[in-house]
Amino acid sequence: MSKSNQNSGMYWIDGSRRNDDFYTVYSVDSVMGKGVTSTVFRCRNKSTKEECAAKVIQKMGQGKRKKVISSEVEALLQLNHPNIVKMLDIFESVTEVYIVLELAAGGELFDRIVKKGHYSEKEAARVTYQVLSALEYSHGKGIAHRDIKPENILYSSASDDSLIKISDFGFAKHVDDGIMQTFCGTIGYCAPEVVLKKPYSSAVDLWSLGVVLYILLCGYEPFWDESGEVGVTRKIVYGDYEFESPYWDEISLPAKEFVKQLMTVDPDKRPTAKEALLNPWVQGNMASDVPLTATQERIREFNAKRKFKAATNAVVALNKITGGAYSQSQSLSPEK
Fold first, then answer.
1. Does the predicted TM-score (pTM) go above 0.85?
2. Could you say which of 111, 147, 168, 205 is catalytic?
3. Is the pLDDT of residue 333 over 80?
4. Is 147 among the catalytic positions?
5. How is residue 85 annotated by DSSP?
6. Which of 32, 87, 263, 305 would you label with 52, given CA atoms 20 to 30 Å apart?
7. CATH of 107-289 given 3.40.50.720, 2.160.10.10, 1.10.510.10, 3.40.50.970
């Protein structure tokens, strides 16, 4: 076998820049986030001075990991929308993949919500509308995101009227035949048809957005259960959630009705993204501007617990990979 053929097997992404060193084109600044096999850096193009984000992914094995990275890149290459984080460049070495992305400097959804001086249904509706715009576009391209959750919804900038962008298309899937079956995503945000391992469509993204909106309005998860994942799964399957008093007392009826529509157990009765965009509440016409101060505080608590759990899970995953070499003190330092 020739050397070129041997090298071709070491590369995962068609069209990636293999002869250019990422670090000669970009200068790396701070760490923005860290996962089990990837790190996101804030960086700058040395020639244009444009600030961006670089997702540096360690190649570990072939099968599933390669498929996830390839799916993300394939999806991003086809998507160009104001509410979707844009891929700017891609580099690849034998050991790493470097995905250069548009910088969403405003931070994650819940991190921003808890810092707002005034937060109400109107901001929740504004966020939801822009996520729906992104989903209408991606679904129109035949691409389902399959992992809509708060940490994948970002503010483009620090301004109050910042654009909202969805990110992380690692689980994205091109719906060639309209049906998917792979279990993926994050359990608390998964639609009933996903946890039941039934064939499903891009309608799963609408359910997941419904869960995010539920939390945006009240500050806690709709399907939490003290028994853990088994109880959560049961509640999801039956659509077992409530608008409990006093937590929902200040939330308008149109907001509650819209949540119900998104979290309809039967996917055929769920609105499409295009249909959901026409809802008067999500357009802001019927959204209340009453301050949701107590909701903000509950989101703050929920967000802190979510981050701690994510850090703990990262330790477990890394220890499986490294045979216990990764210490808990390393992982549970404050998240970037």
1. yes
2. 147
3. no
4. yes
5. P
6. 305
7. 1.10.510.10
